[in-house]
Write a structure and sequence with these properties.
9% of the residues lie in helices and 34% in strands. By secondary structure, the chain is mainly beta. The termini are close together.
């Protein structure tokens, strides 16, 4: 598959990262994380949906566009695949959410993803429990 455009979001780990949610994966610009945020894998992100470059937002908003999200937490990486939609908004100023379902709100980046936070390899999740650890969400769209 040839991906035409990409953007990256840099985020930090936190001791309360659990990555237990069965339907979503989230990163946030928030500076703290409570145990209620069981889908959140990273905080203090440098971008939310609204901040992504206009080219990638345009591609994500195309019906059935293929989106590949690579989570990079050195020395590990994990690939998630999902889809865009002409109904995706990308207007949220705090969060990015990847969804296994087709639910769409202003925080949604991708729908019908093949993995949720619960399915991220535990070695990556354990790394993200370290607040000094930096992660990258590399977003590629065909």
């Amino acid at each position: 598959m040839r991906f035409l455009i990409s953007d990256e979001v840099i985020f930090k780990g936190h001791p309360n990262v659990q990555s237990l949610h069965a339907r979503t994966i989230e990163i946030t610009k928030d500076k703290d994380l409570t145990l209620n945020g069981d889908c959140i894998i990273g905080i203090n992100a440098n971008k939310a949906c609204k901040d992504l470059n206009s080219g990638i937002k345009h591609r994500i908003k195309k019906k059935d566009s293929l989106i590949e999200i690579e989570l990079i937490v050195e020395p590990y990486n994990f690939i998630i695949k999902g889809f865009g939609s002409n109904k995706i908004l990308l207007t949220n100023e705090e969060d990015i959410v990847l969804r296994k379902s087709n639910f769409i709100c202003d925080r949604t980046l991708s729908i019908n993803c093949n993995f949720s936070s619960f399915e991220i390899p535990r070695v990556i999740v354990d790394s993200l429990k370290d607040s000094s650890k930096t992660g990258i969400m590399l977003i590629k769209v065909e």
